[in-house]
């Protein structure tokens, strides 16, 4: 039965419908090298059913917060452009778990900083860690630390 044949090919409309994407998104992913198609004699795109697994991988990776460049890099580490198998998924999802843990830790820190701002509203560059979040020289001490040089 064609339905379960991994070598069966789909038109772009059928592929997009099964992947839950717009056809424009399929073309975009293809232009980025994330999915691939073969061409018919009439130059129409046909997608192997196995490419649906690449789309599932892309969507899962995007939901974790990976950029398309990062997704492409992850897929690019697979030999011969094959689709991700269970072992690939296990390895990569483990890396993503660490990423999510770092994101959660950063958000917790942000939440704690924000707790200090509730009811304040000063937005002081000296005092407010939300407003001045990236202050890398604060640890050097109070006052100017970067040696302002007038003209
Ligand atoms: S608004 Fe005052 S400390 Fe952030």
TrEMBL record:
Keyword Transcription attributed: yes
UniProt GO BP: response to oxidative stress
Record-annotated HTH merR-type domain positions: 9-77
Pfam family, one: MerR
Swiss-Prot/TrEMBL keywords: 2Fe-2S, DNA-binding, Iron, Iron-sulfur, Metal-binding, Transcription, Transcription regulation
GO MF term list: 2 iron, 2 sulfur cluster binding; DNA binding; DNA-binding transcription factor activity; metal ion binding
Keyword Transferase: no
Alphabetized NCBIfam families for the sequence: SoxR
PANTHER family associated with the record: REDOX-CYCLING DRUG-SENSING TRANSCRIPTIONAL ACTIVATOR SOXR, REDOX-SENSITIVE TRANSCRIPTIONAL ACTIVATOR SOXR
Name of this protein: MerR family transcriptional regulator, redox-sensitive transcriptional activator SoxR
Organism: Glycomyces sambucus
């Amino acid at each position: 039965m064609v339905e379960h044949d991994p070598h069966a090919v789909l038109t772009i409309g059928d592929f997009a419908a099964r992947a839950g994407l717009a056809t424009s998104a399929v073309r975009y992913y293809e232009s980025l090298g994330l999915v691939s198609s073969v061409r018919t004699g009439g130059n129409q795109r046909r997608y192997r059913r196995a490419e649906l697994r690449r789309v599932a991988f892309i969507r899962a990776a995007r939901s974790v917060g990976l950029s398309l460049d990062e997704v492409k890099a992850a897929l690019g580490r697979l030999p011969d452009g094959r689709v991700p198998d269970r072992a690939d998924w296990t390895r990569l999802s483990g890396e993503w778990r660490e990423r999510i843990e770092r994101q959660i830790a950063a958000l917790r820190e942000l939440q704690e900083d924000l707790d200090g701002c509730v009811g304040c509203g000063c937005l002081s560059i000296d005092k407010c860690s939300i407003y001045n979040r990236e202050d890398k020289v604060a640890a050097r001490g109070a006052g100017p630390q970067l040696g302002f040089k007038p003209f």
